[in-house]
C-alpha cells in the first residue's frame, strides 16, 4: 500500500488538493476548484461577497464547507485511492475568521453523511459571514489595540506584528463593538484553517502557531494566547478561542462523515492546519534558517525561515510560527508588478523584452538616480499618501526610469528586510515577474546573492501534504527530519540560476545608503 498524504489549501478564490506518495517522492494528484465557478450559489466574486463598502471584504464559511464536499467528491470520481491516505492536513488564507455558536460542537461530532456539509452546518454560526484578509475596515480598532499594547514596537514584540486591519484581533474587536449580541452568542472563534480542520476532525480544532501569529493575539515567543492582547481586543475572548498547537499535530481520526461518504480510511488522521504562507514555506522547502523566497506578483512578498524570533521595531514586517518549528517572516510590498506595469505604461514600452533592452543601456547604480514608486499607498514603508518621487532622475530619461524602478524595489526589499538579520545563501523567486531576467539580475546584484527560479503551483497545498506526512510520522513515534521530508519535492528550474556581479554588488552596497536617505526625505514630506 502506497503511503499517501493529502494536503488541502483553502485560499481566497479556490480550494486545492495535492496528494503525495511519500516514498516515491511524487505528487500523484492535484486539483483546484474555483469558488465562483464551481459554487455560484454562494454569489462570491473572486471568492469575496459583494459589499457596498469598499473596505469591507467578507466571504462565506458555508462556501468553504461546500467546496470541501465537492473536492472530495471530485477525488473519488477521479479514482484517487482515498482509502490509502494516512493523514490529512491543510492551509487556509490567513487572518479570516469564523464565528460559531454553542450548537457547533455537538453538530460537528455528529455530521450526518446522508446530508451535505452545508445542510449539517446550518444553524451553527453566530455570524453568517467571515471577514477575510482583504478587509481593511478596522483602522480604528487597530489604533485602539496598539495603544493598549504600548505602541508599534511593543505590539510587534508581543504578538509578532504591529496591528494590521486584516489581522483577526482587530476584526474580532470590531465585531464585538458593532454586534454585541452576536458576539455574546459566539462560543468558538476559528480561523479559516482551524474551521476546515474542525470539519475534517469532527470537533473544534486547535489554531496553529503559524496562523495564530496572524491574529495579534498570540504571544509570539511563548506561543500561547497573550493575556494583554486578549484584554485589549474583546471581553471573554479566551473562552471563545481554541487551544494553540503545532501544525500537523494529530487532532484525532478523520470524521466518520468522510469515511462513509467518500471512502476515506477510518484510521486516517485529521491534523492541525496552518496558514497558506507558512505552508508555502514548507512547500518550497525553506527549512533552514536564512532560506528565503521572493514572490514577484501583483504585490511582492519576501518570506522565509528565521532562526530566532526577531520582530520589526518599525512594525512593517510580520513574524509567524513556522510549521518546521522555528519562525518565519513575511514582508509585503504593495507596489510590486503594479508599479512595474505603471512605468511600462507611462513610457509606452511595448513589452518586457523592450523594457530589458532599455534597462541594458544604463549601468548598475544608475549614476545615483533614485525613484520611489509609490503609485498606490504602500505597506512597506508605510505610505498612506500615494506618490512618485524622483531624486537625481530625469523624468524624461526613459532608460534611466526603467532601471530606477527595478533598483528601487530591490533596494527597498534589502533595506526593509535588514531587521530579520538573515543573510541568505540563495534566494528562490516565484510569481509572474520571475521570468524577467533583467529584474532578477538586479535582484542578485542588490542582494549580492544567487537567485534561482522555482515553480510554485500549489506550494501551500504541497506544504500541507508534507505537514500531514510529518504529523503522521510523529504520531507513530518517529522523529522525522523536515529537511529529509521535503527533499525532492520542490526543485529550482534547471538553468535558472543567476549569479551576482561582484562589481555591481559593491555599487549597491553604497547606493542603499542614498536610497535610505531619499526614503526618509520623501516620508517627511507626506
Ligand atoms: C498574509 C496575507 C495573505 C493571505 C492570502 O499576511 O494576508 O498572504 O494569507 O491568502
Salient structural properties:
single chain, about 525 residues, alpha/beta, Nucleotidyltransferase, domain 5, about 40% helix, globular, binds D-xylulose
In short:
Helix content is 38%, strand content 20%. It is an alpha/beta fold. The strands form seven sheets. Strands 1, 2, 3, 5, 13, 14 and 15 form a seven-stranded mixed β-sheet that branches. A six-stranded mixed β-sheet has the order 18-19-17-16-22-23, with helices on both faces. The protein has a two-stranded antiparallel ribbon with strand order 4-7.
Molecular structure report:
By secondary structure, this protein is α/β, with parallel strands linked by helices. The chain folds into two domains: 276 residues, 2-Layer Sandwich (Nucleotidyltransferase, domain 5), CATH 3.30.420.40; 204 residues, ATPase, nucleotide binding domain (Nucleotidyltransferase, domain 5, 2-Layer Sandwich), CATH 3.30.420.40. Helix content is 38%, strand content 20%. The protein has 20 helices and 23 strands. Strands 1, 2, 3, 5, 13, 14 and 15 form a seven-stranded mixed β-sheet that branches. A six-stranded mixed β-sheet has the order 18-19-17-16-22-23, with helices on both faces. A two-stranded antiparallel ribbon has the order 4-7. Helix 13 crosses helix 18 and helix 15 crosses helix 16. The chain is globular, with a radius of gyration of 23 Å. The N and C termini lie far apart (64 Å). The mean pLDDT is 95. The structure holds D-xylulose. D-xylulose (XUL) binds next to helix 13. The site of D-xylulose has 12 residues, from helix 13.
